[in-house]
Amino acid sequence: MKIGLLADIHGNVHALKAVLKSAKKQGADKLLCCGDYVGYYYDPDSVMALLDNWDWVGISGNHEAMLYDWLNNNNREEIKAKYGSGISIASKKLDYETAVRLYEMPSQTKLNIKNYKVMLCHGSPWERDNYIYPDAKQQTVDKMFTYNPDFNVLVYGHTHYPAVWKHKNQIIINPGSVGQTRDYKPGASWALWDTVTNDVIFYKEKYDVNPVIEMCQTYDPDIKYLANVLVRK
């Protein structure tokens, strides 16, 4: 069985289309998604429609928590100033049932897939809004392995940087960000896990960022980062 590993789509349907096209070509049977479907960019409704065409399991990220806050009229000015219009637009484009489904997803979950114990989280097993970068200190990596050690495969996101660590019969994978890569390598990041070989392959898909940049210029002209991060090298 081949499993597509995705994180941090952030309303970028153009990036997601490229990833799903590649995932289908590579023979992915199922998707595991590590949160942040909304925020930053502007097509969360189309993102959810595409995901729902697949067999997929997901958890919530910190941007789903922001969506909850926005819908409950909390911290709106702070969210808009720091992250742009993505959450506001998600609150309008997503129907009520989909919005509730997103923010009521668990912040982490455990699955059994082909005799593997799989854990999904967003930032870390101990905190959803925790950043574990590829250059994390060894004690932090060790904590990832031992904090909740009953797993063979742990998949997380949040940093927007691909990462992988292996220890004995355990592997920790960050597939990078589909919608907003931050590793100075433009494209849409994801990974494919093969349950037969237990191998993980990382992919970076090219896609046309111009429609996304045009929307950034329309909705968030004062937040240059939203467009610039998509093309920086």
Walk me through the structure:
It is built from nine helices and ten strands. The protein is α/β, with parallel strands linked by helices. The chain has a single domain, classed as Purple Acid Phosphatase, chain A, domain 2 (4-Layer Sandwich). The strands form two sheets. The chain has a five-stranded mixed β-sheet with strand order 3-2-1-9-10. Strands 4-5-6-8-7 form a five-stranded mixed β-sheet, with helices on one face. Strand 5, helix 7 and strand 6 form a beta-alpha-beta unit. The mean pLDDT is 97.
Describe the structure concisely for a colleague.
This protein has 233 residues and is α/β, with parallel strands linked by helices. The protein has a single domain, classed as 4-Layer Sandwich (Purple Acid Phosphatase, chain A, domain 2), CATH 3.60.21.
Task: From the structure above, extract its key features.
single chain, 10 strands, alpha/beta, 9 helices, Purple Acid Phosphatase, chain A, domain 2, globular, 233 residues, 33% helix
